[in-house]
Amino acid sequence: MGIPICGACHRPVEERVVTALGKHWHVEHFVCYVCEKPFLGHRHYERKGLAYCEQHYHKLYGNVCYKCGEACGGEVFQALQKSWCIKCFACSLCDKKMDHR
């Protein structure tokens, strides 16, 4: 298999490697498409082959579910400064679905 090649700089990745979007990346080269800040272990969101930080994905494509990471379609439940799909909003201890009304 050999040493992976970075999808950004096209040089070998000999230390920590990030695998995303079907490519390998140096940690510092896997960045948000909009702000170009590295994810550095933070969650990223993919759309049409591009990676976005949560802030820019939300700004461009709408609410992102805190649990499943998908764009929320239809109704959205918002609490604790986060958004959830109605199907994902549940108790964190027992996983019982909560009524959003």
TrEMBL record:
Show the GO cellular component annotation of the record: cell-cell junction; cytoplasm; focal adhesion
Instruction: Recite the UniProt keywords alphabetically.
Output: LIM domain, Metal-binding, Zinc
GO terms assigned for molecular function: metal ion binding
Domain LIM zinc-binding residues, every copy = 4-63
- Report any one BP term from Gene Ontology: cell-cell adhesion
Pfam families (alphabetical): LIM (PF00412)
For this entry, the protein name equals: LIM domain protein
The top of its lineage is:
Eukaryota, Metazoa, Ecdysozoa, Nematoda, Chromadorea
